[in-house]
Write a structure and sequence with these properties.
With about 450 residues, this protein is an alpha/beta fold. About 45% of the residues lie in helices and about 15% in strands.
Length: about 450
Amino acid sequence: MHPREQTIFALSSGRPPSAISIVRLSGPQAGVALTSLAGRIPKPRMAMRALLRDGNRQPIDDAVVLWFPGPASATGEDVAEFHVHGGRAVLAALFATLSGFADVRPAEPGEFTRRAFENGKLDLTEAEGLDDLIHADTDRQRRQALRQLKGLLGDKARDWRAQIIEAAALIEAGIDFSDEGDVPAELIAPALAKIKTLLGEIQEVLAAQGRSERLREGLVVAIAGPPNVGKSMLMNQLARREVAIVSPHAGTTRDIIEVQLDLDGYPVTVIDTAGIRETDDPVEQEGVRRARARAAEADLVLWMIDAQHEQGPQKSAAPVWTVRNKIDLDAVGADSPKPRQAAAIGQERRRGSDFGISASRGDGIPELISALVGFARDNLGSGEDGLISRARQRKLLQETADSLRGSIEVIGNGEELAAEELRAAAYSLGRLLGRVDVEDILDVIFRDFCIGK
């Protein structure tokens, strides 16, 4: 039997041990397996308590089972669910029993969702939204992914595709009736109006500057600077936990340390890099090389200095903010009879892209975080107005817009050329939805899903 026709099963809840684990089964043998394990099939979508038994009629667990006959199920196939106690031994026994049935096998990553897609339960943009929802780390990412899962882009694309097909039908009708005098003109005029309206709508979506894609990926902020200026201490302050070793000895950080932060719902990856200096230590040299390379790829560089080390920042294509550490020590100057007042220190904390902090005490950290949130907001937007979340979607929408524009440009040279451009536009939207010629990208998309989804 072809793998697509086999029945698949997988754990669809968290890792064991847990209070309850959910095992999902989808495919033509789901009913046979459920009957054998639970003794009978419950009413559709009604929970039933059952003592599950293996092939030797030995008890496995006292469980709750559900039955979702296809096509009215998540995958469009017959689906059974086993809600069992989440111990490893219980799951091992259940998996072993399920594997004993003919043409029943463990699912591959994303295979449940792929079957739902192939059975018309969701389009490719909704499947991508589901994947984004599973991997969402922040609230803004969650809200954007949920919008995709609800079919925001897919519904738009289906409507656009239907209108393109209508416009193409008008133009092709004009071709068929070209010998009827003014009939072609009467058909082509409304077709052109529809095409121009559609082109404007798609261009408006494309003009969103890629912020939705950026929100999905997040920003990268690199902390760089000379050795022993407090980079690791700042990393710990931003993470609110000890993620980097703090030492008074220069060269402690040899490799790149990364931490994922949620700054007001914006996903930000902060990188602590090795201190940049000339050194004969080959290990530290490699750390410096990696630090420079990572800083060059970042969206923002925080260049740290202190009063004793005023080395200027390295050249970077990304914006560079200067962060002056140890303002608590700098507050008492050599010629000052007493420390400056706190208000005076506070005025030194931020000047444009120049920040003053004390990484050891936390002075100035809230102001720096607030500025980082503003930077993220300016670069990522809110995520509420974006339809595109992936480069694949943007590419196919751009192809659609190009074809629509091409149909307008060539219609004066012949309706046949315009009709061909419209067919290409409809084809691109079909690829966006996953309804035509996308077999080559399905494996790439669904392999990123977790097993059991």
